[in-house]
Write the structure tokens for this entry.
Amino acid sequence: CWMHPTGWYSLLGKFMCYHIGLGGISFQSPDFDERYVAHLLKLLKASSLAQAVILANDQVYHADGRLMAGAGTFYVPNDYVLKLAREHSSVFLPAVSIHPARPDALEELDRCVAAGAVMMKCLPNCHNIDCNDPRYRKFWERMAELKLPLLAHTGGEHTLQIIEPKYADPLVLTLPLECGVTCIAAHCGGRGFIDPEYFHIFEEMTTRHANLYGDISAFNIPFRSKHYRAALRPLVQRLVHGSDYPVPVFTHWAWMRGLIDWPTFRRCEAIANVIERDYQIKRAIGFPEEVFTRISKLMRGRPV
């Protein structure tokens, strides 16, 4: 693994570490990975969640398969998350990350599935992936054959370096969907800050693609929280929970939008465990249990 955050990304990264309870730790510390994992395990075991999908993060490539030199904020190899999932099999489920332009993309896909991957994660706007590029069709078709779902970032992004902003549009998932891949649009295309709003596009796409879902990760921030009411309409049948850990979790926005009352705000804000706080806010808002268990029917292998 490596991390090379600069400028805003470095400041935000430090704030996120502080927010989750790892204040004062350096990204360059030799034991950073070990301390981060130990803290995550501690939070999970003290939360209402039985398991968590941990995410790899591939490097950035050009469309022709060349590695993009100097690009990317951090890198988490597939072997790293696969190893953690083996060591903590009762808690961690591995999501691998493979840029489909990689010369070894198909081989890496088969290798990771054989090693126990339950889904694949990418950030098209940060990884420079035009998922609709016909050169990637074989990759998506193979994912569909393997029944490996795709968790893809959609909407605004402010924690990682953006390579191609237009790939934040959920329409970038059209080809994988047409190839039969079960796709989960992270954040439902919601706006993060000063970026375009794609939630309405995601919502419309669910009427045309039965294999499209969305997750409600990072909804406890100012702009995405405005979509809670829309998410509780019939769309709720196509949603799954996501924490987006270690992105900050604040109770204020749900209260300010009238989604929870003052006693509930005080109760949730007093929860130090940010994974549990995120869960409790969403349950208090009205998300049913199915939103938190539906993912087990979508993941490859369908773990309990």
In short: The beta strands are 2-3, 52-55, 74-75, 92-96, 119-122, 150-153, 183-186, 212-215, 239-240. The radius of gyration is 18 Å. The first strand starts at residue 2 and ends at 3. DSSP finds 14 helices and nine strands in the chain.
